[in-house]
Amino acid sequence: MAYPSEEKHTKAVLKRYEDIPNPRLREVMQAAVKHLHAFVSEVKPTGEEWFKAIQYLTAIGQKCDDKRQEFILLSDTLGVSMLVDDINNRRVPGATPSTVEGPFHIPDSPEFADGSDMANGAPGIPCFVTGKVTGLDGKPISGAVLDLWQTDGEGLYEEQRRTADPWMRGIYRTNPDGTYCVRTVAPISYSIPMDGPVGNFFTHTNMSHIRPAHIHFAISAPGHHYLVTHLFQKGDKYIDNDVVYGVKEPLIVDFKKMPAGSKAPGGEIMNEPFYVVSYDFVLERQAQAAAA
Ligand code: BEZ
Ligand code: FE
Known about the structure:
The chain is an alpha/beta fold. It has eight helices and twelve strands. The radius of gyration is 23 Å and the shape is globular. The structure holds benzoic acid and fe (iii) ion (FE). Benzoic acid binds next to helix 4. The site of fe (iii) ion (FE) has 5 residues, from strand 7.
């Protein structure tokens, strides 16, 4: 067979990729070839530039370990994670929207009783997050599981603290009337990790590498859609240019500042200032989502 010319090259590769029995794998790989070839044809990299790209992806893989996931960070900062999230989590109006999970979720967090403190001495301003979990019909969902994770008041996650014990994460369950109450400390806006290849890329740009302050939630309840989302602090100065494009209007909430001496949810008189965040999560039923 004659070697194909540059113009015929993509077609020749696509033809060979027809020989993939699994139809989904074939579809995905042919699209990958098509778009990757179009990208290369447009950009026309030198051999040296292409090798740099390969070194960049290699460095991303080398930065990953069981706690650090630089590939997720790459996907997040390219805006691809949010695109995948949106495609897979189209919610009916009224349901709480999802947002990107990010690289810092650690499974099997410790369980906390309603109202108890998951911050466990971590630095930061005390913060109470309270509300309800309901269905679209407004009926409370009892026993819904809320899995939370966040930075402490210095902007650090467990992965960055490298603590022996769980740090700034916990699991709560709703009461029979659907209510929940979490005690924690307020998160602050923070930089994505800058000590790897993704962070290094940002040093060559004028783009923000900051996430506005937020608390992550993954909420599950039988018969309902699994919801991965955040609550963002209203007024945060990075709310309009989140580095991972995760902010959605319905997820921006007031962190109401209360003075020392005020009564906290649960009744305790606090001897220092604290925040109260009120938010009701609305879950879509699984059957409704399938029909939508
Ligand atoms: C986060 O929310 O923790 C996060 C998400 C994407 C990239 C980096 C951090
Ligand atoms: Fe986060």
